[in-house]
Amino acid sequence: xxxxELPGDGVAAFLDGWLVADEFEVHFxxxxxxxxxxxxxxxxxxxxxAEVFAEGARSAVLEVRRDNAPAQGLYRSRGFEVVAERRRxxxxxxxxxxMRCALEGSLLAARRAVYGGR
Length: 118
Ligand SMILES: CC(C)(COP(=O)(O)OP(=O)(O)OC[C@H]1O[C@@H](n2cnc3c(N)ncnc32)[C@H](O)[C@@H]1OP(=O)(O)O)[C@@H](O)C(=O)NCCC(=O)NCCS
Description:
By secondary structure, the protein is α+β, with helices and mostly antiparallel strands. Helices cover 30% and strands 38% of the residues. It is built from three helices and six strands; from the N terminus they run E-E-E-H-E-H-E-E-H. The chain has a six-stranded mixed sheet with strand order 1-2-3-4-6-5, with helices on one face.
């Protein structure tokens, strides 16, 4: 798990997932509502993907609710694309989109450098 903490303000965002063979599965990412749209989730994702790439991951995959536009926007902004859909995947009957991203070392390093000071 990766956590973004702001001085005096506790945890602002976190990201969780695990590495299975050469694929990293993103399980959950969230940013406190009042801290959203400041690049925190993107920063956590870029840092973690760079780390798991160094550990041997060559792709990342996740499921996201079809109606979750903010999360899809985040994932698209980091290079994820929809590769499949799972009908009625969630308990409430909503569909999931499967999104996948090929990991490429130099791009991850560049992104990490951009976010390094944040
Ligand atoms: C999805 C979520 C984690 C994004 O967190 P965040 O810290 O606000 O995201 P960032 O500021 O790093 O955004 C990075 C990019 O993602 C996209 N994005 C983020 N929020 C978006 C929104 N509401 N609508 C469209 N695109 C969005 C944008 O491309 C954004 O870049 P920009 O701000 O330069 O345009 C946050 O909205 C959240 O916590 N949602 C509730 C929990 C959730 O649904 N998690 C995902 C399912 S596991």
